From TrEMBL:
Homodimer. The last Arg residue of the ACP-binding site is essential for the weak association between ACP/AcpP and FabH. This is Beta-ketoacyl-[acyl-carrier-protein] synthase III. It is an enzyme of class 2 (transferase). CDD domains: KAS_III (cd00830). Catalyzes the condensation reaction of fatty acid synthesis by the addition to an acyl acceptor of two carbons from malonyl-ACP. Catalyzes the first condensation reaction which initiates fatty acid synthesis and may therefore play a role in governing the total rate of fatty acid production. Possesses both acetoacetyl-ACP synthase and acetyl transacylase activities. Its substrate specificity determines the biosynthesis of branched-chain and/or straight-chain of fatty acids. The active site is at residues 112, 246, 276. Its main location: cytoplasm. Pathway: Lipid metabolism; fatty acid biosynthesis. NCBIfam families: fabH, PRK09352.1. It is found in: Cytoplasm.
Amino acid sequence: MRTLLEGVGAYLPERIVSNDELAARIDTSDAWIRERTGIAQRHIAGPHETATFMGAEAAKRALAAAGAKAGAVDAIIVATSTPDQGFPATAVNIQSALAVTQGFAFDISAACSGFVYALSVADGMIRAGQCRNVLVIGTEVYSRILNWQDRGTCVLFGDGAGAVFLRASGQGESRGVISTHLHADGRYGDILYIDGATGQTGKSQHLVMNGREVFRHAVAKLAAAVDEALEANNLSHADIDWLVPHQANRRIIDAMGKRLNLRPDQVVMTVERHANTSAASIPLALAEAVQDGRIKPGHLVLLEALGGGLTWGSALIRL
Ligand code: COA
């Protein structure tokens, strides 16, 4: 049995904040941000654009793209590190927003790798027969955990949500999730983290990052993760139609595209307009490239991500 990806949806907050707008508030410049990261702007959530609201909107669009009804959904898995509450899980709040009353719903915390982790869990549960029609959603409001005085981090992130609707296939299907590859190494927890959690006093609750160290790990670990996905399936670089990477930094994305011998137009890039939306970045990028017709049914798509933990991983999907 295979897990088919039947629909993709996205939601971006209405408000766009340019690099110049940030440069008017803190000691940075459009030129510095573009050159080091490729980012030109980011979407920032308004008060009503919560993780639940954005995730539910993206999910509705994924269901509509698949021609599916919310009544068919029997599991909702949400990747987020910026939930609206400690509990109920954002997935349960989204279940309620979609008026789904059957099945189960839970969150996954794996920072920027969250979507790849959630996809892997959903695929495993579908193959095990625990559910058949699953929404996997990445939804993030990093604007609420950034230290807006820290120019080393606040320029890098944005808000948004993306969702995919997955369905169990019948026998003999060659499309769908081919394999997923997950990794974590907690020894590096101190190079990218949120300082504190619900109920802890004396903590800033802000995102903290050692950018240079994260960059170094990202290039090496993502290279290994993409190789692993190809080797596991006896595939070569030439088999890949599209790379849809986590969108943290143009330099990291370019390095992965080169390593895979892909043409630049085979790499989906949204970091310029979305910045880093953590667990939402891959489904946002996937939604854009599916909706504008670049990624077509039958194409082989490679996903990869690295995030706080450290966590990282890859996934191969035939659309
Ligand atoms: N504007 C202007 N100057 C800035 C700045 C900003 N927004 N942020 C940092 N700087 C300055 C630093 O203060 C430092 O100045 P100094 O040399 O006078 O001390 C200088 O730029 C270099 O800082 P550094 O942090 O070494 O820059 P860098 O080349 O490593 O680029 C990142 C910084 C964050 C862009 C880069 O490290 C990176 O992309 N890391 C990976 C981050 C990532 O992907 N995180 C998410 C993973 S999910």
